[in-house]
Amino acid sequence: MSETAIISGQGLGYAADGRMLVDDATLDLAPGTTTILIGPNGAGKSTLLKLLTGEVKPSAGSILIDGEALQAIPAWRLACLRSVMAQHARLAFPFSVYEVVHLGADGVGRALPRQRREALVAECLAAAGVLDLAGRRYQTLSGGEQQRVQFARVLCQLEAGRSVAGRQVLFLDEPIASLDLCHQLALLDMARSIAARGVAVLVVLHDLNLAVTYADHLVVMDQGRIIAQGPPAKTLDDALLRQVFKVDLSLSRAPAPGLPFLLPQQHRALPAA
Amino acid sequence: MTIASPAPTAMLAPALASLIAGRRRVAVFTVVGLAFACIVLTLVAIGQGAIAIAPGRVAEILMARLSGDTTLLEGRDVLVVLNIRLPRVLLGLLVGAALAVSGALMQGLFRNPLADPGLVGVSAGAGLAAAATIVLGDRFLTGMAMKLPFAVLPFGAFCGGLASTLALYLIATRQGRTSVASMLLAGVALGALAGALTGLLAYISDDRQLRDLTFWSLGSLGGASWTKLAAVAPIVLPLLLAMPFLARGLNGLMLGEAEAYHLGIPVQRIKAMAIVLVALAVGASVASAGLIGFVGIVVPHLIRLAIGPDHRLLLPLSALGGAILLVAADIVARLIVAPSELPIGIVTAAIGAPFFLWLLLRRSSALDV
């Protein structure tokens, strides 16, 4: 896989306050693949994502983007290569929804004509289902609506960067945390359709059932380490659930696609380790 | 784009288009309105004073000077306009623009609508250096005592502002990254320290020094001259010229530093540039016109209320608004106790402080997330 991977992280480590938040993590993001990162709180999922986006520098290991060291790529070119939706996005001043989404096209899409940029923003607003909010002030939106607007902005940057960079990566850190079920599914469907046209997509998720449903490649993290990775059906099992998520539950198999799923109905608390 | 469903785009695009057009109309209206107000106020300000000159005559003199037509340039009013009033009004325009743009930049950088050049220690440092020049100057520099303190004061203030900003920047920078939060906190601490030292200087000063200190700390455009203008303009202009470059970066920074980096903005370079340019511009302003408060808070906020927080418009319109406010305040300062004149800082503070309180009261509804 490492020949075709767009981003390749080798033996990544990141220490803060004497604790390894990420320890010896090796991960490839391949074009056309939706990689989903799961794990308990504090497992290092967001930190690993921040390492791969270049936001923080690894204290160990190396990251290559199409064979080039991440550190050597200037911010403007990275912005064309990858788009990032972070967990929390607060806005300092009351921008309108339209302006927020437009930020995605401002820098990366500088070479595009103005009409094209405006059309792009409109398309992304529509794609994220927030076109009717375009004139609203961002601060007055609900948490879920804000999250959809941020998704639209990230889409906009990805689309604008497409004219510059051929191979792209999309990072989504818990993108559905505040969304209702309908919008959760819509956003993940869209992430998959973006992957289908050749983008490498990395999503951090908490919902195991959604993770299993949408992942091509499932990565399980615990205490800074990657415990298991592979196709979801082969990666998740009862022992892993006990070990990583500290729940005593049995996976079931759905009849049609045969994917594992979890009904947290007969949950008993595990004795503290 | 393949992912967008075409139907809703086609249906709602006109609504979006009219939204964009509406915003553009407001922006154009504001730009034209402010530019017109600025020109009118400039003519009025030049005409107003002990020798009253009609705005029409002022415009005539200025046009004649610009076109090099010397036949019209005769009479006492020409001398008054070109040698006394024009440099004063131009200094007012320049200092007002510098203070307002500096305020807008600091607010964008700190992601805080209440930030001001005073906050990062520029004013406090400049004030301390100026106080030291006034009070200690003729004790330690006896050889030059005849020229002191007024020759050295502007230079001292400028260096003080620059030095305190540099100190702050070094304190808040670790491993090449400048923490905006620690800079804010360090700015408050250094400001308090500079205030205490300035107070100490006031305590040991004699009556004449205390009067100088008071007058300078309230600000005035009274000392304007072409020489002073020529010294201030080259220091303030880089800030005004850098506005288009800084605007895009500051817009990205509204989402946070990490997001700005993800958007491809050179965050560290923007921060360093903004801080240095503000230190230079405010240092030069304080050096040439004393401490003039609240322009940096009031103007950007009013502009934001009119056209929104987009820095590509906010910065140039703040420059225009700041220029207008300071020239208007100078007219008031000269009118209110004519033939004497009030320190301009009193006027801007009298407008600014109640406005600032109103801003704080409104803040929860309008500016908080």
UniProtKB/TrEMBL annotation, chain A:
GO MF terms, alphabetically ordered: ATP binding; ATP hydrolysis activity
User: Is Nucleotide-binding one of the keywords UniProt gives this record?
Assistant: yes
- Where's the ABC transporter domain? 7-248
Q: Which InterPro entries match?
A: AAA+_ATPase, ABC_transporter-like_ATP-bd, ABC_transporter-like_CS, P-loop_NTPase
Xref: Pfam families: ABC_tran
Domain of life the protein comes from: Bacteria
Functionally, this protein is described as follows: Part of the ABC transporter complex HmuTUV involved in hemin import. Responsible for energy coupling to the transport system.
The family line of this record is: Belongs to the ABC transporter superfamily.
Record's protein name: Iron complex transport system ATP-binding protein
Q: Which organism is it from?
A: Bosea lathyri
TrEMBL record, chain B:
**Protein name per the record:** Iron complex transport system permease protein
Q: Which UniProt keywords apply?
A: Cell membrane, Membrane, Transmembrane, Transmembrane helix, Transport
Q: How does it sit in the membrane?
A: Multi-pass membrane protein
Similarity-based family = Belongs to the binding-protein-dependent transport system permease family. FecCD subfamily.
Which processes are annotated in GO (biological process)?
Answer: siderophore-iron import into cell
At the top level, the lineage of the source is: Bacteria
Q: Chief subcellular site?
A: membrane
| Organism of derivation | Bosea lathyri
Claim: tRNA processing is one of the keywords in the record: no
Subcellular location field: Cell membrane
Pfam families for the chain:
FecCD
* Molecular-function annotations in GO: transmembrane transporter activity
GO cellular component terms, alphabetically, are: plasma membrane
Q: Which residues cross the membrane?
A: 27-53, 89-106, 118-136, 148-172, 184-205, 226-247, 272-302, 314-336, 342-361
